[in-house]
Amino acid sequence: MATSHCVGFPRIGKFRELKKATEAYWRGDLDQSALMAEGKRLRSMHWRMQQDAGIDWVATGDFAWYDQMLNHSMMLGAIPHRFEGNIEGQADNLLDTQFRMARGRAPSGQAAAACEMTKWFDTNYHYIVPELHQGQTFRLTSRAVIEQTIEAQEQGFNAKPVLIGPLTWLWLGKVKGEPFDRLELLDELVTVYGQVLAELAETGAQWVQIDEPILALDLPQPWLQAFESVYNKLQTPAIKIMLATYFGGLQDATTTVANLPVEGLHIDLVRAPEQLLSELDRLPAYKTLSVGVIDGRNIWRSDLSAILEQLKPAREKLGERLWVSSSCSLLHVPVDLDSEERLDEETKSWLAFAVQKCEEIAALGKALSGDNSDKTRALVALSDTVACSRRASRRIHREEVQQKTDAITPELMQRHSPFAQRYSLQREKLKLPLFPTTTIGSFPQTKEIRRQRSLYRKQQLDRQEYLESMQQEIQATIKRQEALGLDVLVHGEAERNDMVEYFGEQLDGFAFTEYGWVQSYGSRCVKPPIIYGDISRPAPMTVDWSVFAQQQTSKVMKGMLTGPVTILRWSFPRDDVSQKTSCEQLALALREEVTDLEQAGIGVIQIDEPAIREGLPLRKADWPEYLDWAVNCFRLTAGGVQDDTQIHTHMCYSEFNDIIEYIAAMDADVITIETSRSDMQLLDAFEEFEYPNEIGPGVYDIHSPNVPEREWMKQLIKKAAEKIPPERLWVNPDCGLKTRDWPEVEEALTNMVQVARELRAEY
Ligand code: GLN
Ligand code: ZN
């Protein structure tokens, strides 16, 4: 009998019910008890979905009002001092405290600066970063995981509580104040975890899953060594620990982990299938092995027959000690495919969301136990049919696309001349002043723009009317930029709902869902497009807009595209070809767009790649391979233009140092980049490496509503000019302006243009 279990389930609800409820609570439209009731209803519904799918152990403790890491900070009482005080007379409570930590404010309690938020490993999910300081103590504070486990048990579910492990929580925490070694906090921390386990034992829970995804990182020795003592201390009578690892293989940690005093180990066989045999060799005879064989990071139906074949040796060796599940929590996929109506039947048949993945896990468990019931057989047969249909589909495999990628040569990735030559040709043609000013692409997405789009979507506006209203927006945006005195203008991206979806909708090989929501952070969800097949561009995507925009002005108009790596990263990728292959197809499609723009008279073209850095593999040894193809795909996109056409790129982060050589290798003529929040931290990268091309270090933070002061921006550029010759510096904000209002944008850009003018006089 192979046991099936759920490593974790999405919490947002099929129709984003949790988002709607929490936002209503924040607005004051829902009271706390109503919010609590909605949370309880959703948990119960999600356990039911898992159980109905046939899962043996449902997950508890994976629910969160905002974020699961934040849940653990609440559990441990790791609440920064600034959130402790009560505002007079107003009752504070744990719920509002966690909302204040996440968002800076809540219906009750004093506002304070929110905690930092960052991406969870290489996913698009963001967690609230724990704040750590020397001498910090921990105290069992929130008992949510215990209470919710009891809640599930009372409703008759087989509950397996899930915790994020103490080492992962600590590793992801950030030191505030005096630097110190975070491991000093471990003893205290483990004591609280011990209490939680003891209380879970009292509920009657048998298995507790403890997630330590940091085991898939290159961990320093002391951290790896700490595992043994931590898990020794965590041994609790009546509790069996399932140590869960995911997002990669254990590699150097394999032996340490196999020998830890825990009863079970979960490994990710989607990302690292080769682990199975080494684990089978090493695992002590008393331990349970949970194999993560259903992809928790992607939306494809699995090939169950192939998995059953792969698991044969495990079944023979482990018998009842074999468990099956998804590679990681299903948090990263949408909830239920059955609600989908926008997808055609064929595409739909290829997919599995969380509910369907639970069915697959359960079917595997049953099949491995020798269950040959109709239901199990039907699911395996369905998966065979789907595997065949995907292999043969002409919608997926298109020879003309494959011929194009086969024909890629290094020459295609190469501009005609080196940067120095291009630079003078471009300066001559574009006639730009010293310290040219520009923006990153988008201007405020006003209520009016959103209203027009929604009318168009509801078919209350025909295509022509919609196009005209967007053209008016573009005209107005250009007038404003002219009045501000900017040098290189943009059309403002009014016609784009989203920088990836906009392109995906116009490319072949992409599908879109109606309810395919995935939590990004807190109540924010995204609906990633699905890349199902070979990608091509049936027709130009942005040319008409850019040409229209250029016709409105005698100034230089910058064309605006999203780059291949970013489109790939923010979509669900195929699992039947490598990401590199899809990226090359995207690059070729975008290259056609770039050359069409050039033909149409657009002399400056920006190809945004904000996602290049977040695509970095978790292990450093894998970086070069990824960066090589990512950089090549960018070069392929940009490489078809004449020397005097200026290629820009944009990135939104400042940790630049460790990949600067690759960024330089992209060979964009101009790169604009975020720096202002980190006070030009980026410049550290230039201590040892001289960035060869032009660069626009963002001079103000667009994420803040504060209008930047001139002196501040001027100092930043002057600082930059010490490292980069002024002839190669641009002046621009650090990201697109779509989330801001016009009055603040106008004020900020007035200051920015003024600063550039003053600098021109000084240099
Ligand atoms: N061109 C895009 C914009 O301005 C860039 C967005 C981004 O960097 N994420 O909105
Ligand atoms: Zn940006």
From TrEMBL:
Annotated Cobalamin-independent methionine synthase MetE C-terminal/archaeal domain residues: 435-757
Cobalamin-independent methionine synthase MetE N-terminal domain boundaries: 4-317
GO molecular function terms listed in the Swiss-Prot or TrEMBL record: 5-methyltetrahydropteroyltriglutamate-homocysteine S-methyltransferase activity
Any Pfam family the entry gives: Meth_synt_2
E.C. numbers: 2.1.1.14
Cofactor(s) the record lists: Zn(2+)
Catalytic activity: 5-methyltetrahydropteroyltri-L-glutamate + L-homocysteine = tetrahydropteroyltri-L-glutamate + L-methionine
One GO BP: methylation
CDD domains from the UniProt entry: CIMS_C_terminal_like, CIMS_N_terminal_like
Keyword Zinc: yes
Binding-site positions, L-methionine: 440-442, 493, 608
Binding site residues for L-homocysteine: 440-442, 493, 608
Active site: 703 (proton donor)
Binding site for 5-methyltetrahydropteroyltri-L-glutamate: 16-19, 119, 524-525, 570, 614
Chain residues that bind Zn(2+): 650, 652, 674, 735
Binding note for cofactor: Binds 1 zinc ion per subunit.
UniProt record similarity statement: Belongs to the vitamin-B12 independent methionine synthase family.
Gene3D superfamilies: 3.20.20.210
Pathway as given in its UniProt record: Amino-acid biosynthesis; L-methionine biosynthesis via de novo pathway; L-methionine from L-homocysteine (MetE route): step 1/1
Assigned keywords, A-Z: Amino-acid biosynthesis, Metal-binding, Methionine biosynthesis, Methyltransferase, Repeat, Transferase, Zinc
InterPro entries assigned: Cbl-indep_Met_Synth_N, Cobalamin-indep_Met_synthase, Met_Synth_C/arc, UROD/MetE-like_sf
Function: Catalyzes the transfer of a methyl group from 5-methyltetrahydrofolate to homocysteine resulting in methionine formation.
Alphabetical list of SUPFAM superfamilies matching this protein: UROD/MetE-like
Protein name (database record): 5-methyltetrahydropteroyltriglutamate--homocysteine methyltransferase
